[in-house]
Design brief:
Length: about 160
C-alpha cells in the first residue's frame, strides 16, 4: 500500500473553503483538471452537517506501465462523505478493477488566521502480482504531478 499526503494554504476563511470544496461545479472542475473526460455529481444528500455525494467520471484506461490508453475508457465512482462541523471528508473510489485496486482518502481543513489550510491524503493498494507496487508508484507520481492542477481548480472556485 502506498500512502500520499499534501497540504496547501488557501486564501479564504474555512467556511468559504468548505463551500468551494462541496460546490458541485467546482467538484466537477477539479475532476476534469485531473484528466477526466467527463464528470458529474450524482445523488447528493445533505443531512445537517453531513453531506454525501458520488462523483461519476470517465477517464482513459491505463496500460500495465501506467501510460494512457486512448483506445479504452474506464468508469470510476468516488463516494465522498463530508462532516462539515469537523471540516473533514473521507472518500473511496471504485476504479472498476474490483478488489484488485483499493483507493481511499481524506480531506481535512483548518483555519490558519484569516486563511485556511487543506490537507489531502490518499492510500492506494494494488493487489496485482508482480506489477502492483510499480502501479502504486505510478499513481504516486501522477498524484504529485496533478496536485498543482488541483490547487488551481480549487482557487478558481474561490470568490474574488
Amino acid at each position: 500500500m502506498t500512502k500520499l499526503e499534501k497540504t496547501t494554504r488557501v486564501a479564504a476563511d474555512m467556511q468559504t473553503l468548505l463551500r468551494v470544496l462541496t460546490d458541485e461545479e467546482t467538484v466537477v472542475a477539479r475532476e476534469l483538471s485531473r484528466g477526466a473526460l467527463d464528470a458529474k455529481v450524482v445523488a447528493p444528500v445533505r443531512d445537517g452537517s453531513h453531506y454525501r455525494y458520488e462523483l461519476h467520471s470517465t477517464k482513459y484506461g491505463r496500460t500495465m506501465t501506467g501510460a494512457e490508453d486512448k483506445n479504452k475508457t474506464q468508469k470510476q465512482v468516488s463516494t465522498y462523505d463530508w462532516d462539515m462541523d469537523a471540516a473533514s471528508c473521507t472518500f473511496a473510489t471504485d476504479t472498476g478493477n474490483g478488489d484488485r485496486v483499493k483507493v481511499e482518502g481524506y480531506m481535512k481543513a483548518k483555519a490558519v488566521g484569516d486563511d485556511s489550510e487543506l490537507t489531502f491524503g490518499m492510500s492506494v493498494d494494488v493487489r496485482i502480482p508482480v506489477v502492483g507496487k510499480g502501479i502504486e508508484k505510478l499513481v504516486a507520481r501522477e498524484f504529485n504531478k496533478a496536485f498543482p492542477e488541483f490547487e488551481e481548480a480549487l482557487r478558481k472556485g474561490l470568490p474574488t
